[in-house]
Amino acid sequence: MTSTQGTDRPDRLSVEEHTVDGIRVVTLGGEIDHDVTDALRGVVLPADGQVPPRTALDLSAVTFMDSSGINVLVSAHQAAHDAHGWLRIAGAQGPVLRVIELVGLDSVIACHPTIEEALAG
After folding, report:
1. Overall number of domains in the chain
2. Which residue among 28, 30, 75, 90 is least enclosed by CB atoms within 10 Å?
3. Alpha-carbon span 46 to 110, nearest angstrom
4. Residue 67 is part of a domain; what is its CATH number?
């Protein structure tokens, strides 16, 4: 398991990664805004270009996300698609889910209530 935090505001975003049955699971917590997008991008879009083809993002502990977070998720979705894989979102709640629905991201990226459902597809 790897833990990474945003560099500009380390108290704002937590990241944990692990693999379940060959699927990369990234658990995010805190706030996703322009202050932490570089850290988030580094996790979901590795600099070496080796994007894992199957990734599930657990957003159940994310309390806020603005358009900069949406942009990173769209880029990650496109990279996974280009690698003949997928990106799934799990556990988005409250204002985070509302933003996802308002911008129509849930019609582009599969969203599931739980990480277990996201892993099951």
Report:
1. 1
2. 75
3. 21
4. 3.30.750.24
Find the domain containing 7 and state its range: 2-120
At a CB cut-off of 8 Å and minimum separation 6, what does 64 contact? 31, 32, 33, 95, 96
Reported as type and span, the H/E element at residue 38 is helix 37-44
Would you state the pLDDT for residue 50? 82
Q: Is the pTM of this model over 0.90?
A: no
The C-alpha R_g of the chain, in whole angstroms, comes to 13
d(CA 91, CA 97): 9
Q: How many CA atoms lie within 13 A of 19 on its CB side?
A: 6
Take residue 61 and report the two structure tokens written for it. 């502990």
Per-residue pLDDT tens for 102-114? Answer: 999 999 999 999 9
